[in-house]
Design goal:
alpha/beta; FAD/NAD(P)-binding domain; 2 domains; five-stranded parallel β-sheet; 8 helices
Length: 333
C-alpha cells in the first residue's frame, strides 16, 4: 500500500511547525496534525503575550508573534495542516504507518515525527476553595490580552521565569504590579531576577494565597499566609494571575499500537532523534537524551536533524543539501 505522505508531524507547537517547514524545504509530502484548534501549542494557548528570549535572531519576541512567523514559514509550502486532530492510534511499520485521529480519519505516511511537547496540558490551578468563582474574570492562568490589565492593580503568583516575565510585561501597562512567591528566592534565570529586582514590581515572599473575597468594587481581597510561619497579609487587587506551571500528560502515546519506549513520560531518542521504532523520530519537549535542554531553541535544532535522517532513510538515493539556500534554489526550479 502506498503512503499518502512522506512525513507526518504529530504536534503543531513551535518545534512541530518548524519541522514541517523544514520538511517542506526537503520537498517532502507533509501533514501536520495538531490536537488544539490553533497552531502554536503551549506558547499560543498559555503564553501568547510572553516575551521569548532564547530564539536566535530575535532579541525578544512575543509568543504569538513567534507563532505567526512560523506560520508564515509554513505557508511557503503545500503542507496539509489539520487542527482538532488528536492522534488516537499509530499502526503499521516504516514505509507505511497508518495514523488515526480522534475524528476517525485515517492517513498513511512513510515516517513520523512526534513533536507533542509535554502532551495534553492544563495549568496548575490555585488551591483555594472558591477560586473557580473568579476564573476568567479576576483570576487568570495566562495573559490572553495585555490591554485588559491596563491601569489595574495586579498580583502575579509564581516564582519561575514565566511569572517574572509576566510581571515585567505588566509593569508597562498596569498601575501597580506585585509578584508573590512561596520562597524567598526566585527560580528564574539570574538575569531575569536582576531585572525584577530593579523594576517597580513589588515583591511579596514567602507567601501563599490562603483566601480570596470579591469586594463591592469588584476587586479581589487576598489573604496571603507566610510559608512556614504564622504571619498573614491582606492585599486588594483588580486582577490575579497564577503561574504555577502546568500539568502535562503524554499518556495518549502509550495507547498507540506502535509505541516508542518512554521513561518518566518522555520518549527516549538517540543523537539523530530516532526512537526505538524504525521510521518514528521525536523532537522537542517530549524527548529525553543526555544533555537535553528544555528550550525552544533546542527543539529548533532537533527538527532538521530528525527530518534529514528520516528523508535519507526513505529516499537513500537523494543527497541531503547542506544549506538552506541550496534547498530553496532546488525548490524554485
Amino acid at each position: 500500500m502506498s503512503s499518502e505522505y512522506d512525513l507526518t508531524i504529530i504536534g503543531g507547537g513551535p518545534v512541530g511547525m518548524f519541522a514541517a517547514f523544514y520538511a517542506g524545504m526537503r520537498n517532502a509530502r507533509v501533514q501536520l496534525l495538531e490536537s488544539l484548534p490553533e497552531l502554536g501549542g503551549q506558547v499560543q494557548a498559555l503564553y501568547p503575550e510572553k516575551m521569548i528570549h532564547d530564539v536566535a535572531g530575535y532579541p525578544a519576541i512575543k509568543g504569538r508573534d513567534l507563532v505567526a512567523q512560523l506560520k508564515a514559514q509554513l505557508d511557503q509550502f503545500p503542507i496539509d495542516i489539520r487542527l482538532n486532530s488528536a492522534v488516537t492510534d499509530v499502526t503499521g511499520a516504516m514505509g507505511d504507518f497508518t495514523i488515526t485521529t480522534v475524528d476517525g480519519q485515517q492517513s498513511h505516511t512513510k515516517a513520523v515525527i512526534v513533536a507533542t511537547g509535554s502532551g495534553a496540558f492544563e495549568p496548575r490551578r490555585l488551591a483555594v476553595d472558591n477560586a473557580t468563582d473568579f476564573e476568567n474574570q479576576e483570576l487568570f492562568y495566562h495573559i490572553p490580552d495585555m490591554e485588559q490589565f491596563t491601569d489595574k492593580t495586579v498580583l502575579v503568583a509564581g516564582g519561575g521565569d514565566s511569572a517574572i516575565d509576566m510581571a515585567l510585561m505588566l509593569e508597562k501597562v498596569a498601575k501597580t504590579v506585585y509578584i508573590m512567591h512561596r520562597r524567598d528566592r526566585f527560580r528564574g534565570m539570574e538575569h531575569n531576577v536582576d531585572l525584577l529586582k530593579a523594576s517597580s514590581v513589588q515583591i511579596k515572599t514567602p507567601f501563599l494565597i490562603k483566601e480570596m473575597t470579591r469586594t463591592e468594587n469588584d476587586q479581589v481581597q487576598l489573604t496571603m499566609k507566610e510559608v512556614r510561619g504564622t504571619a498573614e497579609e491582606q492585599l486588594t487587587v483588580d486582577k490575579l494571575i497564577v503561574n504555577y506551571g502546568f500539568i502535562a500528560d503524554n499518556k495518549v502515546i502509550s495507547n498507540w499500537q506502535v509505541t516508542p519506549t518512554m521513561e518518566h513520560r518522555l520518549i527516549n531518542v538517540d543523537t539523530q532523534m530516532n526512537t526505538d521504532i524504525p521510521g518514528i523520530a521525536a523532537i522537542g519537549d517530549t524527548v529525553a537524551y543526555p544533555g537535553k535542554l528544555g528550550l525552544i531553541a533546542s527543539g529548533f535544532g532537533e527538527a532538521p536533524n530528525a527530518v534529514n535522517q528520516l528523508m535519507m532513510t526513505i529516499y537513500p538515493e537523494r543527497r541531503s543539501p547542506l544549506h538552506s539556500t541550496t534547498l530553496f534554489e532546488k525548490n524554485s526550479k
